[in-house]
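Consider the following assembly input.
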Amino acid sequence: MLNKQGFMEGWNNDVGSLAVKDQGTSERARSDEKRLITGLKSSYGYVDHDQADIQFQIVPEIHKEEEKSEKDLMLAVPDEHSETGDHHDLQINGFSDSSDNQYYSRNKHDKLKRRSLGNFSDDESEGFTREVPTVTIKGFKKRRRDDIDMMSNKMHTLQQLLPNCHKEDTVSVLDTAIEYMKDLQFQLQVMSIMRMNRYFALATLNLGMHNDLVTAMAMAQGINLMNQTTSPPLIPTPNWPLPPFSNIPFPHTAYQSLFPTTALPASSTQCVCGLAPCFPSFLDFSSRMMGGRQ
Amino acid sequence: MSSRRSRQSGSSRISDDQISDLVTKLQHLIPELRRRRSGKVSASTVLQETCSYIRNLHREVDDLSDRLSELLASTDDNSAEAAIIRSLLN
């Protein structure tokens, strides 16, 4: 009964195709993280200490598991760089800021450890004056490569999850991700409001969802909208499909009688676009990406 | 800054802070990581959690959409409702 194809053309494949991938990463997430953390902790000691404000430190977990599981990630893990050292440069070129990603996983403790252990620069660090500790961790070199892989893999995953994310550099992806998540969260809140009371739903869909209206409805239901910081601007948008509402069949008869101004199945789009001003969602999301990116 | 800069430092100095900033922001958005505010969350964790969180949100959106559609489908065109909706419009 639900027609997902209706509006979700651009999206359906994204969300649908991810369903399979779901099991892949989330279950292995923990172990991979920990492995990544451990590996990064020991490997990236070369970074400037002056570039100081690296806020992140690594949760000191020493939990090594399934080293090869990461290879099964759905994303293309280019397997050619499991042996040679020059893959490293490949990574740097392919994913522009991958070397930067490694910055914020560094642990201050490691710098000390690194110094005391002495330095050697292995073949992987050609072009970088990297000092690698001689700590004997099993599969050390391979793990470091895996870490870089994982980092870029995750960025890539994120990129695939985001709609209309055409830029590949870290900053854009992260930026996009932040906006997208805010949008999604707000959207879910509104939808949960709509769900509680069918009149809310109708009102929301038909009146255009202005921020005040939504807040009023939320308060009426005793919901505290926590997104006050992200108050969506009322951006008029063209008749683009609004993906989250694609599978809501609008009750045509009711609408026709009550809202003579809106013509009907066009009205589906229009009703949906009544929402558009409020949901800073992927309609203006993409336009924001185009226009607002600096 | 220092002389031991890597070769990408010219641009990376700016984007490094930016990136860590963005990752922090992202961390704040993720409810699970928001509690873990020990300042020790690695970027890979944040990214991982972001991915799973977005997938969860997608699932929720689909779920809510389904429910909403059922809700709306069950809307009868009776007078009480029409009256309420009209009053909302005015």
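The first helix of chain A runs from residue 9 to 43. Ask yourself how this observation constrains the way the partners meet.
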